[in-house]
Amino acid sequence: MDTSSYVKSVVEQTSTFAEWVDGRDAATPVPTCPKWTLADLVDHVGATHRMVAMLVGEQLSEPSKAFAAYVPAPADSSQWGAWMTDGAAAAKQAFDAAADDTPVWDPSGAAAGVPFWSRRLFGEASVHRADAAVALDRRYELAPEPAAAALEDWLDTMTSGGYWENRPDFADGMRGDGQTLHFHATDAPGEWLARREQDRVVLDRTHAEADVTLSGPAADLLLVLSRRCKLGAAPSLELHGDRALLDSWIDHMDWVSD
């Protein structure tokens, strides 16, 4: 997927998300994010759209202005649908006016802000739509190749140097002594080998023997590894090797679903 296809999916997924949440009870709990209500989820997703729209649209070299311009979701949930789709449209407009090499700040340190943020919004849409689906008892679907792309975003973000610098507590819990985890999508191109080292987690896109391997449909891998679905509730996935190592990896992602 490229920038335009990521953004296209963001708009499409946001339209579905907006339809689901519009007019719903703001106090509805979000089981996959135990500390959040539906209002918190809507606020997070819509505010992120607007933050990224400003970062890309104004070609910001640092994020403080975008953070300070935070726009909360409307208190009236009957306005949520329009607010959500307006935010996604603003983000699309910003990306449509930018080139991939347009200088825009991003936390990865890769100096590729436009591609970074298009993929991050796509990853956010893919995971948080799953949160809304669980909260509102809706069916979640994501085609294999987009699901593999969302999983790539998830794993790449969680193992990036910039992320570790911003989340030292998370980094400390991910350090290791060479333990390896292999994730393999069986319905779309996508294999990842994560090796836990003392100073980082090295992520390779390869097929290799590992201490533990989890394989199956890309969408189910995404939901399990992002803590949106328990491993026991995903019978399509096959596990071989050190279950405790995989459990530790997944358990350590608890902060992302607070």
Care to describe what's here?
This protein is of the alpha+beta class and 258 residues long. The chain has two domains: 3-141, Four Helix Bundle (Hemerythrin (Met), subunit A) (Up-down Bundle); 145-257, Nonspecific Lipid-transfer Protein, Chain A (2-Layer Sandwich), CATH 3.30.1050.10. Helix content is 51%, strand content 10%. The chain contains ten helices and five strands; from the N terminus they run H-H-H-H-H-H-H-H-E-E-E-E-H-E-H. The protein has a five-stranded mixed sheet with strand order 3-2-1-4-5. A hairpin with a 4-residue loop joins strand 2 and strand 3 (201-204). Helix 1 runs parallel beside helix 5 and helix 5 crosses helix 6. The protein starts with a helix and ends in a 7-residue tail after the last helix.
Structure characteristics:
Nonspecific Lipid-transfer Protein, Chain A; 258 residues; 10 helices; five-stranded mixed sheet; 51% helix; single chain; Four Helix Bundle (Hemerythrin (Met), subunit A)
Structural class category: alpha+beta
**What number of structural domains do the residues give?**
2
Radius of gyration: 18 Å
Order of helix and strand elements from N to C terminus:
HHHHHHHHEEEEHEH
- From the N-terminal CA to the C-terminal CA, the straight-line distance is 29 Å
**Mean pLDDT, as a whole number?**
93
Oligomeric state of shown chains: single chain
Quick one: CATH class of the largest domain? Mainly Alpha
**Tally of strands:** 5
- Provide the β-strand percentage band: 5-15%
- Our count of helices gives 10
| Parts with pLDDT < 50 across at least 5 consecutive residues | none
**Approximate shape:** globular
